[in-house]
Amino acid sequence: DIDDACSDKTHGFARLYSTVVAEYFGGMRRHFAHLREAMSEGAIAVYVVGDQSSYCGVHVPTADLLGRVAEREGFRVRSIEKWRDRWSTTHARSVDENLLILRRP
């Protein structure tokens, strides 16, 4: 949990990280709701999204979580495909970048 991992941090925005993540996914939920209205039945949308680990080292599986959010807004997840590894300068390790492929039923 981001709040637990950042509880002893006093630098920058560390205490606001969980809020930042919640606002991102909330904004994406609004986006998906509007997108569903604009898309034709059977249309496909593809997002390139990277996992995050910059929030006090907590792994955020962005494509998986966005897929769940999109499903709540009426989309079907066709697939999540690993596209490439991206280098995280924050933690000096590789993180996944994925294609989130959605279909409007």
Structure summary:
The protein is an alpha+beta fold and 105 residues long. Helices cover 36% and strands 36% of the residues.
The number of helical segments is 3
Order of helices and strands: HHEEEHEE
Biggest sheet record: 3 strands, antiparallel
Outline, from the CA principal axes? flat
What portion of residues is helical? 25-40%
Radius of gyration, in Å, reads 15 Å
Beta strands, count: 5
**Order of adjacent strands in the largest pleated sheet:** 1-5-4
End-to-end Cα distance, whole Å, is: 34 Å
Q: Unreliable runs, pLDDT <50, ≥5 residues?
A: none
Notable characteristics:
three-stranded antiparallel sheet; 3 helices; single chain; alpha+beta; two-stranded antiparallel sheet; 105 residues; flat; 36% helix
